[in-house]
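Project outcomes to date are best conveyed with an example. Our students and postdoctoral researchers have been running inverse folding experiments weekly, and each run begins with a structure described purely in tokens. The record below, which covers 316 residues, was selected by the lab manager from last quarter's runs and is presented without edits.
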């Protein structure tokens, strides 16, 4: 059987699939050519990440398709229910990238509170001629310890983020309409651990209480954070989005950054991805990454082997 990993797959995933008797194709096929390629090469399994979309047109055009797999959590680039209605298995790897995304969240938080994103832009330009000026400009940093982190969506990634926040000595609050409360276990290197219970509260109360807000939700029909929500937040709040583009109103965000209502933002995903708006890309108060939340070697290894395990289990 043949597997098309159109957005790539780790070496460990390839080896696991090949050991299970599958042929793995890693040729990058253009979106409009996916259906033809699948049919011409008798592909049984299509694996994607966030770039390739598997919509109704591809599903209808490829009657031999047995599995559609998403390397990661969100499956908004796949018509999941329609695929299932056609007897196609749809799989993903919800647990594999949690820690990687959570670490990136804190990369953006540390960058924001210590101005690292802007300092790294300006030190090469002015470090030798305006050292004292830059030192003064970036001198008013903020500690994360003791501050309140509001987590919108306390699923696997939200929980991984909560663990890191607790380790830093932050207060953690959460809002999740599907998870009323969750026990979060923070494990240490020597085998010891502590467990704490986080009880979900209303979004409105989270927005009012949090010093920093991080989003961990799937794609939405509308904004979770817009003008109204920004207005009730604390002055100087920091906002991080490593979830999905389109959950924050970017026009309202820029306005809030310009006014000082929001101190900084950290964005890994964007409304108009893969061509983010220039107002976002050039803003000095935004820490930017190009949708790399799950892009660590460790996460990609876990994703590849987990996909391989599921595929072998379903088709062997």
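After processing, the design step wrote out the following sequence:
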């Amino acid at each position: 059987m043949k597997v098309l990993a159109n957005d790539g797959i780790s070496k460990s995933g390839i080896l696991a699939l090949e050991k299970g008797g599958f042929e793995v194709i890693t040729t990058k096929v253009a979106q409009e050519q996916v259906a033809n390629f699948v049919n011409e090469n008798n592909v049984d399994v299509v694996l994607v990440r966030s770039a390739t979309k598997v919509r109704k047109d591809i599903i209808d055009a490829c009657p031999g398709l047995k599995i559609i797999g998403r390397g990661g959590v969100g499956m908004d680039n796949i018509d999941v229910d329609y695929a299932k209605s056609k007897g196609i298995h749809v799989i993903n790897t919800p647990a594999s990238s949690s820690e990687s995304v959570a670490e990136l969240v804190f990369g953006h938080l540390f960058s924001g509170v210590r101005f690292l994103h802007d300092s790294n832009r300006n030190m090469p330009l002015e470090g030798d001629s305006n050292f004292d000026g830059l030192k003064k400009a970036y001198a008013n940093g903020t500690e994360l310890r003791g501050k309140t982190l509001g987590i919108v969506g306390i699923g696997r990634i939200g929980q991984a983020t909560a663990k890191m926040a607790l380790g830093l000595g932050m207060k953690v609050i959460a809002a999740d309409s599907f998870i009323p409360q969750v026990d979060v276990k923070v494990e240490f290197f020597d085998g010891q651990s502590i467990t704490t219970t986080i009880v979900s509260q209303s979004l409105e109360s989270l927005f009012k209480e949090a010093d920093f807000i991080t989003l961990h939700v799937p794609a939405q029909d509308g904004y979770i954070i817009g003008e109204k929500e920004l207005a009730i937040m604390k002055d100087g709040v920091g906002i991080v989005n490593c979830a999905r583009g389109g959950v924050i109103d970017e026009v309202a965000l820029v306005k809030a950054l310009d006014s000082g209502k929001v101190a900084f933002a950290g964005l890994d995903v964007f409304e108009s991805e893969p061509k983010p708006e220039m107002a976002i890309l050039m803003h000095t108060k935004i820490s930017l990454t190009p949708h790399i939340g799950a892009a660590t070697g460790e996460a990609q290894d876990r994703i590849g082997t987990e996909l391989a395990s599921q595929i072998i289990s379903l088709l062997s």
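The mean pLDDT is 96. The first helix runs from residue 11 to 19. The training component of this project remains on track.
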